[in-house]
Amino acid sequence: MVHKKEKFKDELYSDEVREKLIEFAEEGFESIPQDEREAWFSRFKFCGVFHQRSGQESYFMMRLTNCNGRLEPGQLRAIGEVARDYAKGPVSNPEYGNGWIDLTTRQSIQLHWIKLEDIPEIWEKLESVGVTSRSAGGDTMRNITGSPVAGKEQNEVVDTLALLDRFQEEIRGDNALCNMPRKFNISISGTPDGSAQDSINDIGLEPAEKEIDGEDVIGFNVRVGGGLGGHEPRVARPLDVFVTEDEAFDVVRGFVELYHEHGDREVRSKNRTRFFVDEHGTDWIRDLLEAEYVDFELRTAGEDMREEYTYNAGRPAEDGNHDYLGVHEQNDGDYYVGINVAVGRLVAEEAIELADLADEYGSGEVRLTRRQNPIIVDVDADRVNELLYEPLLETHKPEPNPFVRGGMACTGTEFCSLALVETKARMAVMLRWLRDNVELPEDVTQLKMHFSGCTADCGHANTADIGLLGMRARKDGEMVEAVDLGVGGGIGENPSFVEYIRQRIPADEAPGAIKNLVEAFAAHREPGQTFRQWVDATGSEALIELSEPEETTYEDPCLTDAKQSWYPFADEDAEGARGAASADD
Question: Quick check: is 63 catalytic?
Answer without folding.
Answer: yes
